[in-house]
Amino acid sequence: MATLLHVDSSVFPGAASASRTVTDAFRKAWEEQHPQGIVIYRDLAVNPVPHITADAHTAGFAPADAHTPEQAAAFAERLTFIEELERADAILIGAPMYNFTIPSTLKAWLDQVILIGRTAMSEDSKIKGTPVTVVASRGGSYAPGTPREGYEYVQNYLEAILRDTLALDVHVIVPELTMAPHNPAMADLIPMYEASRAKAVDEAVTKAKEFAERFAA
Asked: Cofactor: bound how, per the entry note (predicted)?
């Protein structure tokens, strides 16, 4: 049975969140196509992981028998997140843009799972090549050629971390202009927002089915 690791980080619940709407469509399509599969779900807004500490960090570079009690406790918690990542056959991450970058809760999770010599920069990494779908929602548009292109620190950052550092197979879905229905100054962009949202949902469903079929084969 294939395992999907689903990580959400939006502070908004359910349909109030663009990223959750799209990740939910992905997950439902995955479960419909692959009902015998396993889903590990982490809602970082409801249950945030702790920020990495000096003990958790330094323990990653020392043998277990040399750990202090504080290092051992911190690293045991860190291993919980790392082992979930290593068990995943596919990964789904909801990453809304907050103040031009990812939520701090998602950054905390990444800091916990990035371990040099194990999940990162390792030829023996168990996660190398694992497909990951990122739903990078944003209130405006930061696409190439737009006025705010230079403020895009979500997709660029996550591709650098997930693809270049963790060696994952990264696919990014971008529902944008999500503030259009709520900001009168963006009212004329509502049709573009609706089209972007529909495209993102369709893309998520297609990608989920593709993964489910691959792992069911």
From this structure: Binds 1 FMN per subunit.
Whether the CB-CB separation of 172 and 159 falls below 8 Å is answered with yes
Binding-site positions read 10, 17-19, 97-100, 137-140
- Which amino acid belongs to residue 47? N
Half-sphere exposure of 172 (CA within 13 A, CB side): 17
Mean pLDDT over 33-50 rounds to 94
Asked whether 106 and 9 are in contact (CB, 8 A), the reply is yes
- Contact by Cβ (8 Å): 116, 138: no
Report pLDDT for 104: 97
Spatial distance between the Cα atoms of 17 and 22, rounded to a whole number of angstroms: 9
Query: Quick one: tokens of 178?
Result: 């999500």
Digit-coded pLDDT (tens) for 164-186: 999 999 999 999 999 999 999 99
CA atoms within 13 A on the CB side of 80: 11
Q: What is the mean pLDDT of residues 127-149?
A: 96
Cα 217 to Cα 211: distance, rounded to the nearest angstrom: 10
What residue numbers does the annotated binding site for FMN cover? 10, 17-19, 97-100, 137-140
Q: Which amino acid is at 5?
A: L
Res 213: pLDDT: 85
Whether the pLDDT of residue 217 is over 80: the answer is: no
